[in-house]
Amino acid sequence: MTGAGLVSRGAASLVDVGVVAAVSALVGFVLSGIRYTVDGPPFEYPSVPGWSLAAGHTLLVLAYLTICWSFAGRTPGQLMLGLRVITAGGRPPAPLRALVRALVCVFFPIGVLWVLVSRRTAAVHDLVARTALVYDAPRR
User: Fold this and answer.
1) Do 2 and 134 meet the contact criterion of CB atoms below 8 Å apart?
2) 123, 76 in Cβ contact below 8 A?
3) Nearest to 109 by CA among 56, 49, 67, 58
4) Pair 69, 98: CB distance under 8 Å
5) Roughly what angle, to the nearest 10 degrees, separates helices 95-107 and 50-71?
6) Cα R_g (the chain), whole angstroms
7) Does the keyword Transmembrane apply (predicted)?
8) For the residues of 32-68, what is the DSSP string, one character each?
């Protein structure tokens, strides 16, 4: 299997950013609806401190990546681009390995640039978690 390059990874990430943004907006809408139901008008997004918003988004992204990688071996963006995260055995990563990969992705995003110099097109998060993002051959 061929390792995915920077452009494929970036395009898949753009799709995933859109999915996470939509989920985040939905969560805000639901919380607003709950607040409106309990307290009454006006209907507005909850006002939260910036640090809690950042922490919430970080946890949402970590959960999204970990769940997608450990259960399906791919995120929706990676599915659209025909990519899959695998271990040396060719299987999706276990939840702990997927979490480690997600943590490195989120807290060291520039590590993806290692793909440009790696012979096997591995990013830093692939090296740390011992995974690979590969082009998934279509099933016949």
Assistant:
1) yes
2) no
3) 58
4) yes
5) 140
6) 18
7) yes
8) HHHHHHHH-S---PPP--HHHHHHHHHHHHHHHHHHH
Say how far apart CA 92 and CA 73 lie, in whole Å: 5
CB 131 within 8 A of CB 93: yes
Distance CA(37)–CA(65), nearest Å, equals 32
What pLDDT digit, counting tens, does each position of 83-138 carry? 999 999 999 999 999 999 999 999 999 999 999 999 999 999 999 999 999 998 76
DSSP reduced 3-state for 78: helix
DSSP per-residue string spanning 18-32? HHHHHHHHHHHHHHH
